[in-house]
Amino acid sequence: MNTRYAAWRLLAALSLLIPLPACQASTAPTVRSPSSTATPPKASADASCPLPSGDPLCPLNGFFRETYAQRRAAMLAASGPILVQYGDKLVLLRNGQRLEGRATNERYHELKSVAHVPFAAYLLLAETNGPIDDALLPKLISFETLVSQALSSINTRFPDDSQRERQRQILSRSLLLLRRVIQEKQVRSSDIDEYVRAQRDDIAENVKDAARENIMTLHAQVTAWAALLTPEERNRLRVVVGASHMARPGNLALQYFAAWLGEPSTGRTTDERIAENARIIVAENIFDTDHSATLVGTHLVSRATSIAFFNDPLRLDRDLLADAAEEAIRALFGQSANVHASAPGDDAEKR
User: How many domains does the chain have?
Assistant: First the structure.
């Protein structure tokens, strides 16, 4: 396999460890006021209405939006507990209270930070094959200082000898490369390829260890909270997993909660399951508790509305315009439209 291609694949895997904004976790419950649904919706104009000013359809659509939001809040208030995970944070919303815990630990972040060093070195140098420009040299010097400081702190971390030695090797190789490049003010692409190959196995081990730390931290907190739930609450529990776009397939928390809830899972290729009885929702690029909980309410409203209007509980899990769009696109492009009619889950390669 081409070394540069292999390196990019490795960097894609490492990107799963890129931290989201960390929050200091607290285990103290916070009482949340339930959403009020007593105020009737008002027929206010939609500020984003694309129709001409004064068009009566604008406030009409605004009335729909407000009605939808209030119905969503009411259904959410009547639903069971919600468990939200995003970044380092784990939040349980139950009976108007909010409990916060951690989804990761310090060891996870230590392993991740060291694994990111070769990633950063590669990104700095990958496009250079020869003399380095004047703008890059100060960055390399600053990076070399940071790596040196990190290496000096390794002896006070990682009680496991082999794990500690692995971090030392990753950082030492990086220092050797950086110091040579800074001194010679040039770098060959073959040097970078050799550096990446030397780091690959140790980075893979850091990824394994970080995943294990993440999962065990998640499991400890989820198990503790599960003891607070009644059997009925456990059966009604819904989970929202915050994920970035690139880290969505096979998301660690998604895999964990699928196993914990007994939901179907495909392991490393797991994604959100679209099914009437699905209890896990993926909130792509949503990294706060309130918006994650609102997404649960959106699913509840969509399922009820789908049954009433389309006799299909999953119809609004797709774009409402999807079926009509397919017909219109076929009519527009004719046989040149590469559209395959199929059921969800069909293997595209077999069609």
Answer: 1
